[in-house]
Amino acid sequence: MASSSFPIINMEKLNGDERSATMELLHDACVNWGFLEVINHGISIELLDKIEKVTKDHYKNVMEKRFHEAASKTLEGVVSDKNDIDWESTFFIKHLPESNLSELPELNEEYKNLMKEYVVELEKLAEQLLDLLCENLGLEKGYLKKALSGSKGPQFGTKVGNYPPCPRPDLVKGLRAHSDAGGIILLFQDDQVSGLQFLKDGEWIDVPPMKHSIVVNFGEQIETITNGKYKSIMHRVLTQPEGTRMSVASFYNPGSDAVIYPAPTLLEKEKVDESQVYPKFVFGEYFKYYETTKFQEKEPRIEAFKALQKNAVAAA
Predict the structure, then answer these.
(1) In 10 A of CB 303, how many CB atoms?
(2) Could you tell me if 230 and 218 are in contact, meaning their C-beta atoms sit under 8 angstroms apart?
(3) What is the pTM of this model?
(4) What is the pLDDT of residue 161?
(5) How far is 83 from 77, CA to CA, in rounded Å?
């Protein structure tokens, strides 16, 4: 299902008379949608075009043959769409606290240099967006960045994905439904081939492909810090019979030793009942549990950490 009112935030409008209306639109997108697209975000179109070209070239030259060899075997054993495989070709790049680009020999120097340039711009955008969220929530500037930092700063990485055409889109998802574990996610996606959907009010809604936009959604740590006000939303990627969808998804996540808990200012302001308060935990511990339960509903994860916190308090 497509939605004509999918939230699109023009970030240029934050600098003039339309600032307050744009901030309201952003807040509504965070509260009621959990997904949005930003345009005029400050990352140059030329840079995005280059990232798209090198990503598609790399898939074609390095990964496509390998994917198809494995994929033909993958489909043989699949009899229903309740399987545990994803029809995607991916690799991961770590940026912060330390880059692993030098350990990725299959990436050529042009790709590595462009990715370094892109990540600097993306980090600025992530932190700008976090501060806009702070403003809308009534938190001091820099609160969310600090909350996600831990002792070594945030963890920042990119999952580069390609979703090739699939002969049986009825049997295999490109990526199974899940919500993200971390902080804020910034996605540069294909503007020709669709497939990304998120769950809203029980319906799957398409994230419209749009040239040079960045799709934004939030992880379970932002949901925890905002005590459920800004939610981490279930999403998935459908396979298509034609066209390869490109996805460059960057995750601005807490440091592994960051202690995550609801912002006290928000709890005071909203006068939240104690039973409705999200738990406090160390992100690294949460993420370990998330890795084993990624494709399940997030609520039991949050409840499990609430129970752990309760038991720790009782034992103290």
Answers:
(1) 11
(2) yes
(3) 0.95
(4) 97
(5) 10
Handedness of CA 301, 138, 28, 247 (dihedral sign): negative
Mapped onto helix, strand or coil, the DSSP state of residue 11 is: helix
Query: Are 43 and 125 within 8 A, CB to CB?
Result: yes
Segment 225-247, tens digit of pLDDT? 999 999 999 999 999 999 999 99
For residue 183, CA distances in Å to 200, 211, 301 come to: 20, 24, 16
Q: Would you state the structure tokens that stand for residue 170, as one six-digit string?
A: 């009825």
Confidence of residue 2 (pLDDT cuts 50, 70, 90): very low
Distance CA 256, CA 29 (A): 28
* Phi, psi at 188, each rounded to 5°: -100, 110
Q: In what order do the strands lie in the sheet with 8-10?
A: 8-10, 35-39, 214-218, 184-189, 245-253, 155-163, 89-96
